[in-house]
Amino acid sequence: MSIRRTIENNEEVGIRPSKTYQSFVAAAGGHRDKDSFDRNWNDFLLNFGLVDNKWLSDLYEDRHIWVPIYLDHHFWVGMRSTQKSESMHSFFNKFITRNNSLIQFVKKYDNCLRSREQAERESDAADFHTVIPCATKSSIEAQFQDVYTHQKFREVQAQFREKANCITRLTNSALGYLVYEVGEQVSNSIFDKFVVTYDLVAAELKCQGLLFESRGILFHHALSVLSFEHVSQVSPRYILERWSKKVKRRHTHIKSSDDEPLLEPRSKRFDELIFRSQNVCEFTSESEELTTILHRA
């Protein structure tokens, strides 16, 4: 369910959402905790006389599968249920329209793939040959700068900027287990307070924001605690290989119809290995003993 995307699509064609729908959006998302969601949801039902609405009652019962605050403890990498289709539509709409003939579609589809491949190559080149300056003097930020792609490092860097609005205070400690209160300034005189725990032995952080659990990025409250503790390097568990600039794109080994003149030697070797390994697998799968030997090889 992507309420924001629905609103954006409607605005593009001049459809303005009703006040009821806007209130529904406000009640559904953007909360820091489940209690605030429950309060806003109840206020929404009371304000619009929808307390007895069965559809909304059923929707509330299923809140654990669509309300963002209930999904934060799952690793979603920031994705939404409709994000994949939205991304593909946005990409292909630059090249293809519903008025294209079949022949035009095939040609423009090839142009799409070439454009995507070129963009990925340029992105890879930028990751290896250019550097995004750090926003702070933090050695931890430099640690992420050295490992992550530019795209992901920008997301991490945003959390380091947000850290500047935080004030950290140790509230409890026992046997290497520390509890912090992090105050985040949201206006001139207002601070929201959050709890962060830090296990010194395991070098593990637990944060109310749950940004790492849901998107794989350390929240600025957690970064504030690490800064308070003078930690210079984060545990490897917080640096995910999936976003490393050194990760090879596996699909680049596979040739497309227009790649033959420029086919790289690596791709040719890859094709040959695939062909030979397929024969080996077909022969080996006939015997349990041979399969065991191949697994051990």
From TrEMBL:
GO molecular function annotation: zinc ion binding
Keywords annotated in UniProt: Metal-binding, Nucleus, Zinc, Zinc-finger
Entry superkingdom: Eukaryota
Subcellular localization: Nucleus
Bilayer-spanning residue ranges: none
InterPro entries recorded: FHY3/FAR1
Single Gene Ontology BP annotation: regulation of DNA-templated transcription
GO cellular component term, pick one: nucleus
Role summary: Putative transcription activator involved in regulating light control of development.
Similarity field: Belongs to the FHY3/FAR1 family.
Name of this chain's protein: Protein FAR1-RELATED SEQUENCE
Organism, as annotated: Arachis hypogaea (Peanut)
Lineage per the UniProt record: Eukaryota, Viridiplantae, Streptophyta, Embryophyta, Tracheophyta
